[in-house]
Amino acid sequence: MFYYLLWMLALLCRSSAADESSVRDADIFPSSPEIERGSTLKLFCVLGKHLIPHRNASHIIWKLNHELIAQENYNVVNETVSSVTIHNFTYNKAHVKCFIKYLGKEQLLVHAEVKSGFPPDTPGNISCIYYFNVELACSWTSGRQTNLTTNYTLYRNMMKDGRVITPNVAGSSCQSKAESCSFHYPNTPYSSSFCFQVKAENVLGEALSDCVPIALEKIEKFEPPEILSVQKIAGIKQLLAVTWKKPKKILPSQGLNCRVRYRNLYSNSSETVPVTPSSGEQITSLNLTGLWDSTEYAVAIQCISVESKFWSEWSREKKASTEEKAPSEKVDLWRVIESSHSAGNRSVHLMWKLLNHFPPPGRILGYRIQYFPENSAALKMMNITTDKKIILLLNEEAYIISVTAYNSAGDSPEATLRIPSTDEKTSQIIETVRTFTANEEVIVEWMASKSEVTRYVVEWYEDLETDPFRRSWRYISNSTNWRTSKKTFKPFICYNISVYPLYGNKVGAPYSVQTYIQEKKPSEGPMADTGIPGKNEITIKWKEISKDKRNGFISNYTIFYKPEGGKELNETVNPDVLQYRLKSLQANTQYTVHIMATNEAGGTSGEPKTFKTLKFNKEDIIFIAIPVGLSMLFLLVLWITCILKKRMFKNVCWPDIPNPAESIAVEWPVDASMNPFLKGVTSEDKTIGGLEDVSILEPCFPEEHENLLLMNRENHVSEYTDISTKDMINGDEKIPYSEEHEAAKHLSPSMPYTITDPDIRSQVLSTLIPAKKIQPLEMLEDDLHESQHTSHQNEENKGEVLNLPDLSEKAVFNPYLKNSVNTREFLISENLPERSKNEPKSQSTAISPFQQNIVGQSYVTLDMFGLATAH
């Protein structure tokens, strides 16, 4: 209560002394209180001047951490000071916060950190260690934790007649916040009558321990001794001599006890030998006997005063080796034989290791390799190396190889191995090999067909390892199984394990298996290759997963495929299958496919790939293409046939009928109305080589009809030849030019005719028209083509002419058509030159009786020239 009154007085004085220039919003008292746990806490909050008059102490609210303190615990001292009371405070540490509340808002003004704890207990268990003329260090225990800041004071008191005398001199005490404290030189005088006392104090109280007497000679601790040497003695086996020096800073006339610790570097165990040095000597030595030959040892020493209870620390270790002896065990030898080279040589990888036995053979200086052909021991060769491997280039013969390890004391026994010749065949003695794991061990078992074989070699290496020197091996005797820790092998790695039988100095054929000691699912899945899809099927291909990512033996592959918007399907195949044909797929549908590779530990899928099936397959295309192709082929053949037989089809379907009005053989009346045979004849004049109104007609019968019309031509030729000759002898007188013109203009359309020979054509023309009227043949041919267009103008008149009763019988065997055959007769005019008259009359031009009856004379048309030219 007295403390609270003092706080209030201090607050009132502070508030009265504050001026208006203060910039603090508020202050809290006490600012960092430490109280006993479970007691009552009271705090004061003082507002700053600039918050008055708008705010006062009645607006102050209090919170403990984040919880609002009830109003009944508040007390308004005056306009600027408010206090709060918290009963039974049990927090180790908490924050009490002062807020101002105005217009419904809370503003933090100030806060205080409050700690609660306990008064200190009486310190106990005081102990000290005395380092002569260096340090006096003491430690103690303080009991329960106070949770408050506690200070400790260590007192070093003198004792006289059993009474404690507290010296009032500097250096007789030391302060610390921890549970230890030290006196340092020169405040470390030696005395056998000291007692030590510790006082602990905090804000809640203090505690003082009893003064504990401690004799310094009993707590003295030396520095470690110094080892001068550890060495072997020449010619003496299994011995090391150790020499060391005593510590310097020790109490006078104190006896010492020491102990020497030694251990070989091949084991973790050690042995200790006690030693009592002479009191008057600073240097002490000791011989360690019964050690291993050729073995390195580490030696350390510590000492203690005969009256003290503290040993010194161990000295720094020093190492040395005992006297060497020749290695007593031969090396563990093995080989890997590669195939022969082109020159007949082969590489033999030779490797070996030292056997793990104690004592070890000491420091090996090197290895001596000797080899020679089995049948020629005199050809011995030798290599020396410090490595544990070598490559020998041997020929095709069998060889004997030996390896010897040596050190400064001598050689080890020879380890020999036989290399078979290249053509040597060995029988298969090992029948089966299997591997499995049990109780954190890997077990390899095998079965041999010959019971007399008692030695074997187990060889193992990673499947992806290509260096022969990285192979491991183990010799097994009198057993058909081998056990080793699982740590010998790496997990998720494929190993090749081979078992070789040994009989005599020969190595038999191995039996090899592959195994995983531990599996996990593959690191990646296969990548699918969809290829070219069909309508209802597709072939999925994939590649094997690389061995370094399989993590086990692949047991199967599963192909998952899913149509767009459909249900996922799958197919499972054996591990040796790398492609599969998916059938019964939907046409014209997009699919998603991925492949999962599975081993004993699980499966991993590759990246998905999409494909789309075709709308039609090959059969559908062929089914559609064959009818279309046949149709096109038929149309093509029909088109080619029409092109090749165009004239025949035209003559059959639309035959050409000659127009008699265009003939130049006879003279027709100008008035077509007076003659019914001249209907349809044009009045337009044409000039052909000086001839006017000459019409050119084409044959109106097909070629197959011409043969029928030439029948009995001999009977008709003679009749018409006489008539034609008479009429044409004096052509110039009988047919004037004008009459000739009219006759050429009105020819009968029913007269078939032809002239094939150009000479005959000229002779005929000379009989029809005067020589001076003849024009070039090219102009006649032009008019000939023009006249063909007019021959079809009046089909009705042509029909009347063809159907005359007096012409029908002779038209069937029209001798006029005989000119289409090879033998023709011509009409010879008297006016023709003598050469023409004397020519053979093997050919003649036929004049139909119809022509003769109409005009009384024969005629020739220019269509004959066209036919003759065609032939």
TrEMBL record:
Family per record: Belongs to the type I cytokine receptor family. Type 2 subfamily.
Entry protein name: Interleukin 31 receptor A
Signal peptide (from-to): 1-17
Membrane topology: Single-pass type I membrane protein
Gene3D superfamilies reported for this sequence: Immunoglobulins (2.60.40.10)
Stretches assigned to the Fibronectin type-III domain: 224-325, 329-425, 522-616
Ranges of biased composition (kind: Basic and acidic residues): 785-799
